């Protein structure tokens, strides 16, 4: 388990710097720079916004760049997070402690490329799996009460779509052997059953919170209400 930002940077550096065996497409993506959010006070968060990976707008980053919640205030992708924080305080009198991080730290905007470039070959899948091992540490360190997973593909990497192929082989396991969730009709969303450290954490699987495919305002208000209900 990493203890601070420097140790977390080293973990990601060890994964992303040893990449000569990876395809040219993957190496090109890594060369765009590695970035992730890290907040010093992110432990025991009320809410974790969980995304897929940072986007790429054409500007390359030299090495590894960690950012903070404060840094993200004026970025359009993060504005809904701050709106949810404000609404929970104004409407439900909940002072929210939240943070955000992604499953992966490479920069790519098109999700289809993640499936095509990384998930269709063994070295690419291993590269993703190594980052998911760090994700496990981040989840255990943060121990959020609620997770909002705002990308449909996150379900796959959490193991919710694991199944047997036509040959009887179990596929799409990813983190499914480590984390177990179940839809709880009493609370109206998924709840983590294991690992023990995260037992009881609620997970809301939603579409994007910003961009063209973002939740409509009515659906977002219902999500905010639902978060308030499970945090009471």
Overview of this protein structure:
The chain has 232 residues and is an alpha/beta fold. It has a single domain, classed as Uracil-DNA Glycosylase, subunit E (3-Layer(aba) Sandwich), CATH 3.40.470. The protein is built from 7 helices and 10 strands. A hairpin with a 7-residue loop joins strand 9 (189-194) and strand 10. Helix 3 packs across helix 7 (217-231). It starts with a helix and ends with a helix. The mean pLDDT is 95.
Strand content: 15-25%
Total helices: the number is 7
What's the number of extended β-strand segments? 10
What strand order characterises the main sheet? Answer: 4-2-5-10-9-8
What's the SSE pattern? Answer: HHEEEHEHHEHEEEEEH
Tell me about the largest β-sheet: 6 strands, mixed
Overall tally of domains: 1
